[in-house]
Amino acid sequence: MCGILSIVNKKVNSTSGSLIKASSIIRHRGPDDEGFLTWQPSTNPVIWSGGDTAASTQEHWKYDTLGENVSFKVGFGHRRLSILDLSPAGHQPMIYEKAGLTICFNGEVYNYLEIKAELATMGHKFHTTCDTEVILHAWEQWGVKCLDKFNGMFAFTMLDYRKNEMYAVRDRFGVKPLYYFDGANALYLASEIKQIRTSPDFKFELNEPIARKFLATGAVDQTSDTFYKNVFSLPCGHYLKMDLSKDGNAFEIKQWYKLIPKKWAGTFDEAVVEFRRLLTAAVDLRLRSDVTVGSCLSGGLDSSSIVCIAADLLKAKGDFAGQETVTATYDEAKYDEWKFAEEVIKKTNAHPHKTFPSFTQLKQEIDAFIWHQDEPTGSTSQFSQWAVFKATNEAGLKVMIDGQGADEQLAGYGGNDISFYAGLMKDGQIGAVMEEARAFKKEKGYMPKGFLIAAIQLSMGKALTALMPAKFKVTRIPDVDYIVGGESSMMYGEHAKSLHENLLRQLYSEPLPALLRYEDHNSMAWSVESRTPFLDYRFVEFTMGLPARFVYKNGVRKHILREAMTGIIPDAITNRRDKMGFVTPEETWLKSEGKEWFNAEIDKACKAFGGKILDVANTKKYVAELVDSKRKFNFMPWRVICFNRWFESIIKEQAGNGK
């Protein structure tokens, strides 16, 4: 896991000071080593050391140190967090001279050993034990098609200096970030937006439509757009290709991966076996490392499954030492999952580390937290995750695995019911609809009339719905009035027409892209690599091809996961019906301990954006109703506060840079 940077100059070749500045600002992503590469057309690329290049690397390679005034057409900057092949041989950027290729790589290709063995049979010779070299040889052998063979999380740039071509690639589901900014004089490709902000071409402009939707709904990272105009995220499963022989460096973006679910035709029991096999294989691959691998353990179904599977795999390999785990805990029982985490720890002989995120810590670290995120976050839940990775770093761990990505595939969130019922109706499964409704009534004490009516309307289409009596029509949720001019409070214009369609939205639009950004930036802030077995593409292609009622049945979310993990995780967790995750007592902080702070911060935001984006009177009224429990709690106050703190920090930074 690392931090990467690529600068491609247009007509004017800038000097290396820009490369050094944009690389040094992300030292947290790779404190173990630093490297640079510069290239001019019709020459061979040059590797340079930097101020943070490891002594062992410098002794081995004896690179010259990059100064401020080296001109280049293409420049790479790399920060290394050493995970595989800890030796100087794994130093980046890496050149494969025989093929005329050089790479700047962030992430992991977990199945690199299998690919390496295949390439060896074709005559390829290797000089390191790292996955980066395997990528170079695979690219030589198969070109862009090699991406289909990679099982991992990755973002990298690849320069073919003999063909005058450059590629930027992002993994299937966007686990690793890659942002780009096409400035007047140079194209920047970077792991974090803060690198782009160092560009002489960059001038901050707020992407107001993104800001308005975020403040109204919490939506973030739904598209390639960011909170910054002209800064974009390379879409997951896509690559950017640039012809360097032409002025202006025109580029095109193409999709290299499209999720095609493998429709399941077997029985539920057979699916349970396959589910367990694929998840176990995904965890096993992600245990590959030359440093200790720990686990983020909340005590929920997902993280508990990962920890228990990993424990069984390690024991089968003769490792009985027990995993290192990190858990966030709270004094308030409503938000604390320690009793569940403790069950897993006892079962697996894990070595637990606990962290206690507090309101005091939030106030002390909020600016650092927001700076690392680069964009606003939806709630203080992301701060809880920040605290977990801080504790991970303090425990001396560099690699963690967790359960990110399971909810989006397995209906782990609320809000799936209308689409679920509509899909069953569309498929003519009326008996299943009635069984689900009865199960809902058994648990809740009433029939899901609203869900059923909405699902009927969704199935009927707009023309037939218009003929329904008004009293049966589901009315549109009103716009939020604390945004000037009003803003829709709905993420989408209408509900998805099936559970499958709704889960695809969650995977590709909201919330997974945002959660992956939070996780990457939170973990890397503390120089920790985070791995996500549930996003193994083989597993995703399997789960997304399952019948809806294998996933969500009789009101029970993650039905197949519970069945597959029976006997593997503690029964107390298998039988859990609540959904928590990286929660904080945000509601308690708002209403008691942090009431004055929240109100003061809301006042600041209203002064900054009153009449522009925020309607001051309605904003303060909304928050007061939340504080007085006259309105159901939600994260709106934090969104307003976080947005304003983020905006202020960017304006201050830009002023300091003379922009």
TrEMBL record:
Matches recorded under Gene3D superfamilies: Glutamine Phosphoribosylpyrophosphate, subunit 1, domain 1 (3.60.20.10), HUPs (3.40.50.620)
Top-rank taxon of the source lineage equals Bacteria
Q: Name one GO cellular component term.
A: cytosol
- Documented EC number(s): 6.3.5.4
Q: In which pathway does it act?
A: Amino-acid biosynthesis; L-asparagine biosynthesis; L-asparagine from L-aspartate (L-Gln route): step 1/1
List where the protein spans the membrane: none
First and last residue of the signal peptide? none
Which GO terms of type biological process are on file?
asparagine biosynthetic process
| UniProt xrefs under SUPFAM superfamilies | Adenine nucleotide alpha hydrolases-like (SSF52402), N-terminal nucleophile aminohydrolases (Ntn hydrolases) (SSF56235)
Outline the extent of the Glutamine amidotransferase type-2 domain.
2-245
* Alphabetized InterPro entries for the sequence: Asn_synth_AEB, Asn_synthase, ASN_synthetase/amidase, AsnB_N, GATase_2_dom, Ntn_hydrolases_N, Rossmann-like_a/b/a_fold
Q: Which residues bind L-glutamine?
A: D131
Active-site residues from the entry: C2 (for gatase activity)
Q: Pfam families from the xrefs? A: Asn_synthase (PF00733), GATase_7 (PF13537)
Q: Which UniProt keywords apply?
A: Amino-acid biosynthesis, Asparagine biosynthesis, ATP-binding, Glutamine amidotransferase, Nucleotide-binding
Q: What reaction is this protein's catalytic activity?
A: L-aspartate + L-glutamine + ATP + H2O = L-asparagine + L-glutamate + AMP + diphosphate + H(+)
GO MF, one annotated term? ATP binding
Family (UniProt): Belongs to the asparagine synthetase family.
Question: How is this protein named in the record?
Answer: asparagine synthase (glutamine-hydrolyzing)
Write down the species. Flavipsychrobacter stenotrophus
Q: What does the organism's lineage look like at the top?
A: Bacteria, Pseudomonadati, Bacteroidota, Chitinophagia, Chitinophagales
Could you tell me the gene encoding this protein? asnB
